[in-house]
Amino acid sequence: MRKIKTMIEPFKIKMVEPIKQTTEEYRREVLKNAKFNLFNVKAEDVLIDLLTDSGTSAMSSMQWAEIMNGDESYAGARSFFAFEKEVKNLTGLKHIIPTHQGRAAEKILFSIIGGKGKTVISNTHFDTTRANVEYSGCKALDLVIPEGKQASLDHPFKGNMDISALEKAITEIGASNIPVVIMTITNNAGGGQPVSMENIKATKKVCEKHGIPMFIDACRFAENAFFIKKREKGYQDKTPLEISKEMFSYCDGATMSAKKDALVNIGGFLALNNDELAQQARNMLILTEGFHTYGGLAGRDLAAMAQGLKEVVDESYLAYRIRSTEYVGEKLTEKGVPIILPPGGHAIFVDAAAMLPHIPKDQYPAQALACELYAMGGIRGVEIGSAMMDRDPETKKNRPAPMELVRLAIPRRVYTQSHMDYVIEILDIVNKEKNSIRGLKMIYEAPVLRHFTAKFEQV
Ligand code: F0G
Predict the structure, then answer these.
(1) Is the pLDDT score of 33 beyond 80?
(2) How far apart are CA 135 and CA 449, in angstroms?
């Protein structure tokens, strides 16, 4: 058999959305009016939107068929049972509670198990997870392995939990003060880096020893499973679904934003084994989201999620998905653009601190870089750095982020290789002209999740 090198997108395009062309001059004006916050820019003024891979997937023809097929009954809809069956098959968990997105599951979970005097431990909390944990009065502690904090250090599983640090933290804090340990797979805030099966197992073992439940933040479970297949011994011959099932077999519960690896534009769930917790969660769901067979979603959304969960574990899809992100990473590295290595599953994380040493941390180098990418090429990424970190809830002081990153998240099945080649070209230009990029000063901030609405001016 001949080996063909070119990997094609494993789908055909049936429907297209036009992209409005804009000039650099126009975009610099837009940026000024948006107070240097890309969340304030209209999507139609963006050429390549890499703000997030969340809710931005292109659905398949089969998913759209399921949208038409959705059962909109208030209680006991057929679409709910199809969804429940799929999530149970995947996770093996007993209680499947739909929510309108991931943070709704987090809000419900932490309003029940969180609270003052407690600490939740994670490899790295995603920003909404951290915010929901802290909003309940609880502390959020990140214990990713030290390699996970070094941008250019190559390691196959940079999302892993630091097991000895976990043991030590549990001894210091006391198991009874730790309601849950959460494994974020892949580790979004840490660079979309995977967690190994061995590490999931080891974390579970420590949790079990101390009687602490282990949960999975499952947003990108399929991408994590594919990394395990590629990089961990003993998994080469297993299917992504088999690997996913094994990952979930070690957990006591899961939160999921279906807007990622369920390939839908809205949806999520909370999955639990504990009967009493599930009952409390359903009661809270009815109060905040809706009846427990629709959880704030339309029946059609549940139907599309069920179909998306089947599609996402397809091996040719995952091979294309992971390779296309890796391709961007390879080209950027060749051009000398500093990125987190190896590239994660859903995004390229540009190391703004390394690229812009002339901009100090308190002038938000990653925010400044994100703005320049927009101005130069109409590309919208997002800062994952000191602006996103918020202030310490107790001291009210700015918390410097461990890394200053610009995340270029790649929506699923949306952009082709030439779109990504354009992104590579723009980053190369920005990197060559980096000395002209100026730092930013934050002139407005909200008390939590400030990066969404913050206003900046150039220093
Ligand atoms: N957990 C992780 C790891 C996430 O990446 C996200 C969302 C959530 C929880 C919350 O889910 O948005 O459905 O409420 N991440 C998006 C992103 C917003 O752009 O990375 P949600």
Answers:
(1) yes
(2) 11
Indicate whether 13 belongs to any domain.
no
CA distances for 340 relative to 63, 155, 208, 347, angstroms: 34, 11, 33, 10
Which residue range is the domain that position 240 belongs to?
61-311
Q: Which atom of ligand 1 is nearest to the CA of 257?
A: 13
CA 101 – ligand 1 centroid, Å: 8
How many helices and strands in the chain, by DSSP H and E? 15, 14
In ligand 1, the atom with minimum distance to the C-alpha of 187 is 3
Nearest CA to ligand 1 atom 12: 102
Domain contains 330: yes
Q: Which of 248, 280, 311 is the last residue of a domain?
A: 311
The residues lining ligand 1, judged by C-beta closer than 6 Å to any ligand atom, are 52, 54, 101-103, 126, 128-129, 184, 188, 217, 219, 257, 259, 268, 409
Q: In CATH, what number is assigned to the domain containing residue 296?
A: 3.40.640.10
pTM of the model: 0.94
77 C-alpha to center of ligand 1: Å? 27
d(CA 393, CA 107): 18
- Counted domains in the chain: 2
Query: Which atom belonging to ligand 1 lies closest to the Cα atom of 103?
Result: 14
How do residues 34-58 score in pLDDT, each as one tens digit?
A: 999 999 999 999 999 999 999 999 9
Cα 189 to ligand 1 centre (Å): 10
Are 327 and 424 in a shared domain?
yes
Residue 95 has phi, psi (to 5 degrees) of: -110, 120
Beta bridge partners of 213: none
